[in-house]
Amino acid sequence: MKAKNLHKILVCICFAVLILSCNKDEEDTTTNSNNEDADITLQIGSSYGGGVIAYIYQNGDSGYLSGQTHGIVVAPTDQAEFSEWGCFGSFIGCGSTSIGAGVENTNSIVANCSEIGIAARLCANLNSNGFSDWYLPSKNELSAIMNNRSTINTALSSIGGVSLDPSAVYWSSSESSSSKAFCYYTAFNTVESKDKDFSFMVRAIRSF
C-alpha cells in the first residue's frame, strides 16, 4: 500500500515538473519572439535587422509592447543625395507625424503620387541586406533618429555604412500641405516645412 502511494506521489511530482517546464519554454519563446538572434543586445547602435538600431520604442509609441524590445532600424546608406518629396500642389493626405506613422505615410505617397525617383518611392523600392520593408520616416521618427545621430554614426562607421550627413537636409514622409512636407536640418537640429519640389537627402528605415 505504501509503495502504491509513493508511486502516485512520484507520478504527480513528475507531472508537475513537466507542466512547469512547458510553461517556461512558452515564456522564453514569447520573450524572444522578436529577436532574430537571442545573443544580440538590442539597443541603439546595435547592428541588426539590415542596418543599425536607431530608436527603441517607448511606452506610448505605436509598436511598443511591454516586456519586448522593438524599434527602428536605419539603412546603412542614404538612398539619395538629391530627391524631391514629389507631387507639388497635390494633397496626398499623409499628414501624420507620430512615431509609427512612417510606413503608412510611405504607402500612401507611393499609391497616390506616380512620380518616379521621389523620396518615399526610393525607400519603398529598397531591397537591402535581405529586407524589403523599408519606408520613409515620419516627422517624429526622423527627429528621434537624429537625436541619436552620434551613436548611430559611430555604429554605421563600424559596419562600413555611411553616416547621417551633419550638414544636410533629410525628407520625412509627413505632409504639411498640398505644396509642403516636413524635413530635418541636421546642421541646426530643426524641423522645417519646405516645398515638395525641393531636392533633399533620403534615408530609409524599417521597424523590428
Gap between N and C termini:
59 Å
Q: Could you say which overall geometry the principal axes of the C-alpha atoms support?
A: globular
Number of beta strands = 9
Contiguous low-pLDDT stretches (5 residues minimum) are: 1-36
Which properties best describe this structure?
208 residues, alpha+beta, 3-stranded antiparallel sheet, globular
Can you describe what's shown?
This protein is of the alpha+beta class. Helices cover 32% and strands 21% of the residues. The strands form 3 sheets. Strands 1-2-3-9 form a 4-stranded antiparallel β-sheet. A 3-stranded antiparallel β-sheet has the order 5-6-7. It has a two-stranded antiparallel sheet with strand order 4-8. A hairpin with a 2-residue loop joins strand 1 (47-48) and strand 2 (51-56).
Helix/strand layout:
Layout: H1 2-31, E1 47-48, E2 51-56, E3 71-74, E4 80-84, H2 102-112, H3 119-124, H4 139-147, H5 149-158, E5 169-175, E6 180-185, E7 190-195, E8 199-202, E9 205-207
Antiparallel strand pairs: 1-2, 2-3, 3-9, 4-8, 5-6, 6-7
In summary, what is this structure?
The chain is of the alpha+beta class and 208 residues long.
